[in-house]
Amino acid sequence: MKLVAVPLSLTEANAFIEKYHRHHRRVPRDKYRVGCEVDGRLVGVVNVGNPVARKLCDGYTLEVTRLCTDGTTKGVCSFLYSRAARIAKELGFKKIITYILESEHGTSLKASGWILEKSDCGGGSWSSPSRPRDLYVQTDEGLKKKYPTEKKQRWCKLL
Fold this sequence. Notes:
There is one protein chain. The chain is α+β, with helices and mostly antiparallel strands. The protein has one domain: Gcn5-related N-acetyltransferase (GNAT) (Aminopeptidase). Helices cover 19% and strands 36% of the residues. The chain has helices spanning 10-20, 76-90, 107-111, and strands at 4-7, 32-38, 41-49, 61-69, 95-101, 115-121, 136-139, 142-145, 152-158. The chain has a seven-stranded mixed β-sheet, sandwiched between helices. A two-stranded antiparallel sheet has the order 7-8.
């Protein structure tokens, strides 16, 4: 089995995310995205953009905003994290970050040379009295939380 990087449109990447991602929806924009194919079948996508946190937007840092696989092919996450970092380096960026849930182990990130930068960050509700949010969304499987409330870990790779 050979993993092959392929270019994707934002529309193609978002369609894959809508179909397979466990707790996030499509991204409105990104800087670039990469797909991973096995035998001509798309098995994963990664979207990379500016950091969501304004304080981390220094012009030299990018963020993996989505990484999604079909869940059946080994090594896809590590492959895509590595590709995302390599492209960021080639574009002149100095650092790439991503967030995962506290309940996730980060095995693919470790395998790709990323390091845990910060634990116990983010999470919580996005809703506030001045800006209420719909907290649930209807899916094929039923009602699902729209925003994860679990705390997160921030991982990074210096380029």
